[in-house]
């Protein structure tokens, strides 16, 4: 006697399942145009290179204290981030890789030369850049590890602005750094992680 009730119930469940599969599975009516999907910068990339709450505003022209004259033989230099000064003028070296892993390690150049976090880029190949646009300084240095403007997500915007503000300076680069009297660096000190990289 129970069989006639069970068969209609199973048939009803099968109909619901069949309808659900048609309702939720299928090909979109129009193909997705991937050319219009913007590239995204990873969260890790922005975390490493973006502005930090600990950044202290500064004026590049106030960098009148002692620093160092450095020769960078190749790129990148081992400076993971630069901070723009007030009005986007000047550039300050922020997070520096704290070791040279092997002789000639390009990413150990800043550390081996004594460059310190909080020093301002004063000149590049003899050209004073204390009051130059941050973008121009980044173009001259062409230190791609530290320059977020050349990520995939901003390449189009940079092209619309007319491209680079300056051609990269020829290597080896003679870069002079200067300190700001009374400035205290409050940023993170990098520590080596388990993947031969560095993190805060």
Entry keywords:
alpha+beta; 25% helix; 8 strands; two-stranded antiparallel sheet; 4-stranded antiparallel sheet; 16% strand
Rough outline: globular
DSSP strand tally: 8
Main β-sheet description:
4 strands, antiparallel
CATH superfamily of the domain at 57-182: PDZ domain
**Which parts are unreliable, with pLDDT below 50 for 5 consecutive residues or more?**
19-24, 26-46
How does CATH name the architecture of the domain at 57-182? Roll
Q: Return the structural class.
A: alpha+beta
CATH fold category name of the domain at 57-182? Pdz3 Domain
Distance between the termini: 73 Å
User: What portion of residues belong to β-strands?
Assistant: 15-25%
Average pLDDT reading:
76
Q: Strands of the largest sheet, in order across it? A: 1-6-4-5
* CATH class identity of the domain at 57-182: Mainly Beta
Protein name: PDZ domain-containing protein
């Amino acid at each position: 006697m129970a069989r006639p009730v069970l068969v209609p119930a199973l048939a009803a469940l099968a109909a619901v399942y069949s309808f659900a599969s048609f309702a939720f599975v299928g090909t979109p009516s129009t193909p997705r145009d991937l050319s219009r999907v913007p590239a995204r910068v990873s969260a890790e990339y922005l975390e490493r290179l973006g502005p930090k709450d600990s950044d202290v505003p500064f004026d590049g022209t106030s960098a009148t204290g002692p620093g160092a004259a450095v020769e960078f033989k190749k790129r990148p230099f081992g400076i993971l981030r630069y901070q723009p000064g007030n009005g986007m003028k000047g550039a300050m070296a922020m997070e520096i890789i704290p070791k040279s892993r092997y002789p000639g390690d390009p990413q150990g150049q800043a550390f081996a030369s004594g460059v310190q976090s909080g020093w301002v880029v004063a000149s590049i190949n003899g050209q004073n850049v204390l009051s130059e646009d941050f973008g121009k300084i980044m173009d001259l240095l062409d230190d791609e590890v530290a320059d977020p403007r050349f990520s995939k997500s901003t390449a189009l915007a940079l092209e619309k602005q007319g491209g680079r503000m300056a051609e990269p300076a020829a290597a080896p680069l003679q870069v002079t750094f200067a300190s700001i009297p009374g400035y205290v660096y409050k940023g993170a000190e990098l520590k080596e992680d388990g993947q031969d990289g560095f993190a805060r």
